[in-house]
Amino acid sequence: MAKKTHFICFCLFLSLAISSLMQVVMAEAHEVGGLKLFVFGDSYADTGNCPKSMAGSWKEPYGITFPGRPAGRFSDGLVLTDYIASFLGIPSPLPYQWRKFGKKLRPFGMNFAYGGTGVFNTLVKEPNMTCQVNFFQQLIEEKVYTKHDLTSSIALVSVGGNDYATYMASNGSQQVSG
Ligand SMILES: *[C@@H]1O[C@H](CO)[C@@H](O)[C@H](O)[C@H]1NC(C)=O
Ligand SMILES: *[C@@H]1O[C@H](CO)[C@@H](O)[C@H](O)[C@H]1NC(C)=O
């Protein structure tokens, strides 16, 4: 019984600590002009960067729960990016590929994640982590985002396993016999 109470107290303390930390981060972000979320990685985070002509994410059953039709997410509903953005109280950041059409969403950050990618090159042709970071750097050089913006930014990096999958696909037999 006592142990259980301690555990509950600890959890309560932890959630209070996290929520007050978030409040500090969000209050500071508010002062310097809006919290931004920048996202890098793979299909756990991609919200529509992979091209329609190439990716299964634009076909059913993806998207049937949200937004109701396939729209570039590798999920029938929301992905990690959407949940983190909603936790921060901002709209899901604009996919990099749509940057010219969705200017209104730019103030909330941008999503550079491409499904199927990894830190190294994988079996898909989409930009790896280095390229994604370079896209972001380019936008900073073009002053789409300022260095000042970065003080109110959060980065989400998702590396779910495509690097491992690529290794297994090319060197899998070696792995099994080893
Ligand atoms: C990432 O992609 C670029 C462009 O294709 C390539 O030059 C670079 O070597 C890749 N980086 C890694 C770590 O594989
Ligand atoms: C597979 O093994 C070869 C030989 O050891 C190596 O050169 C190659 O980089 C490996 N492939 C991957 C994707 O790691």
From TrEMBL:
Q: Name one Pfam family in it.
A: Lipase_GDSL
Note the InterPro entries from the entry: GDSL, SGNH_hydro_sf
Q: Which Gene3D superfamilies match?
A: SGNH hydrolase
What does the record list as GO biological process? lipid catabolic process
Name of the molecule in the record: GDSL-like Lipase/Acylhydrolase superfamily protein
- Coiled coil regions in record: none
Taxonomy, superkingdom: Eukaryota
Q: State the similarity comment.
A: Belongs to the 'GDSL' lipolytic enzyme family.
Molecular function as annotated in GO: hydrolase activity, acting on ester bonds
* Stretch forming the signal peptide: 1-27
Q: Which UniProt keywords apply?
A: Hydrolase, Lipid degradation, Lipid metabolism, Signal
